[in-house]
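re: that complex we talked abt at group meeting.

here r the seqs, copy pasted straight from the sheet so there may be weird spacing, ignore it
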Amino acid sequence: MILSYQKRILLTAVIMLTALLLVMAALWLPPIKRDVKIMDALFVLDITDSMNVEDVSLNGDKVSRLEWAKEFTRRAFLDMPCGAHAGLAIFSEARSLILMNPVEVCASYNDLTRMLDEFDPHMAWARSSEVSKAVYTAIRQAKEIEPEPTIVFLTDGHESPPIHESLFPRFDGKPGDIQGVLVGIGGEDLLPIPKTNEAGEIEGVWDVNDVMHQDVYASLRADTTTNVPTKRTEHLSSQKKAHLKTLADRVGFEFLSSPRSPGKLVDAVRDVSVTRPQTIDYDLYLWLAGIALGLILLVYLPYGFFIRTDD
Amino acid sequence: MWLSWNTPWLLWLLPLALLPWLSHNTDKRVAWQAMLPHDGMSRFITFALKLLSTLLIAALLLAMAGPHIPEQWVERSRQGAEFVILLDRSRSMDDIFNRPPRNLLPRKAFSTRSKRQVSGDYLSEFIKRRPDDRFGYILFSTTATEILPLTYNRDAVLATVKAGSLGKGLSQTDIHRALVKAASMFEGEPYRGSRNILLISDGGVAITAEEKQALEQLLSKMRLNLYWIYLRSMRGMTLDPGDDDNLLWMEMPERKLHQFFETLQTPYQAFEAGSLEEFAAAIDEIDRQQYQPLIVEERLPKQSRRAVFLWLALLSSLLLVAARVYTVWGVTRAFERKR
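got the structure back, here u go
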């Protein structure tokens, strides 16, 4: 297509004039209102011994499950939209302990991450790991928080002492009262669990005779259907997917096994959460300036290299 | 004063600003060079217009990259103090605060809130009253962890205090470790103003002689003040020995702890809160005492500087548009005359 000189001059003037108007709009157009969906989430991190097993990878490195959980939580904070709220809790023994109620995630990001950095096995106040009961307490306490947060429970699902399927701890609440996501962490293989001492320092690993291998109540029964000899592998740990799935169904949570990115986790949280809309000011300047720049570049692109203009 | 950029990769596109010097889209091919006027003025105008176009492209790119002055912390002088909060999480704190004795018929309705909930309420109120203070929070059971390092962010402090009144207590509490942790939070910090530890508990623990010595040194080294709001667990018992004391009270660990605190060089004050009124009075008193000069760090939020670049783009495009419109006018006239 060859444009005459006159037309080129006119077209250039029109384009420049449009660009000028766009720049003016970028300067003076007030921000428009836009609704974003925000949610409240309570991140509960398992800090029991089994979380020290190093069988997950993060940026190509083998790290412990706890490191992974901390890093994923931190990145999830970043992926949450401003206005969303996030809180933090830890799980040890048989309960979840809420440490910070949900706060606005952008304004308090610094404090949230500093608290997260402190999460360490030495915070554990006992050396047992009863995941299902901890999920129940998290749900009970979430009900006391206003507005009720979605629970994001990061765990490997390792129950110690073990529980028998028919003797599952009773859940008093109604499934789905509190929304939540169970995030499974850990690999497929059974690996030895580092053992922490009173001060939280790692001292060797849990030995086969250090732990119980059967449900306490089942072991007391004469009934051979519940009291069956099992493989003695409870001193080893892997991600207990089947158990976590059962647990998630019981309390009406979503189960997400080893999410690949924090974005996926935040999406899952958003899907299950009762989100509320929040109006934010959205500035169009970037679009306006971008279009203006595009138009101006159209004027100056060196077409001469491709098209011959003869007049 | 340096600018930061939201999307710095856009700056890689800056060479695009050189395009006006390469493009000949609006040139007119002329049969004979000598027909062109060679005056200095028009050469200058051509140069100026190209420069303006470069400026326009660069300014738009820079504006799009989101220039801003990053958030800064500035030191201001205010009135206030720094507090580390130690809230006892032991099981006994789950008991009802100021419960009337069971063997008496209560004359007036009493609150059924636990000691921990009541403490949480008063702490929240205290924090809300003091806008410039810096707060830290320590969680202590068998070990102590500074879950909230000293911060000015009151939302985070209040959320942590609120979380502290949820759920049930923990089995063991080690006040000694918590005090050591609280003192060490000021390690390496410049002295900004009054530093305080606010301990709220309903019991004491025995501390060994070596622990006492180490703690005493640490507390005075860090120049701390110690406040203890003691929630009475036994009716009638006071921290200071009285004349008609029950024999059972002599060896109570809280009395031992109180005696030890009193021997410290550290300024120490104990408040015995047996009722809501006493609790409120204690909080008021601490609030009143702790208005001293304090250096606080205030956050200046990031300031966008894109308007500067947009104005630059606006001015240059205004001139360019004027030039273009004039050209259109001139060219149209020239072609008309030719016809």
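couple things i noticed - Chain A has two domains: 5-31+283-305, 34-279. The two ends of chain A are 13 Å apart (CA to CA).
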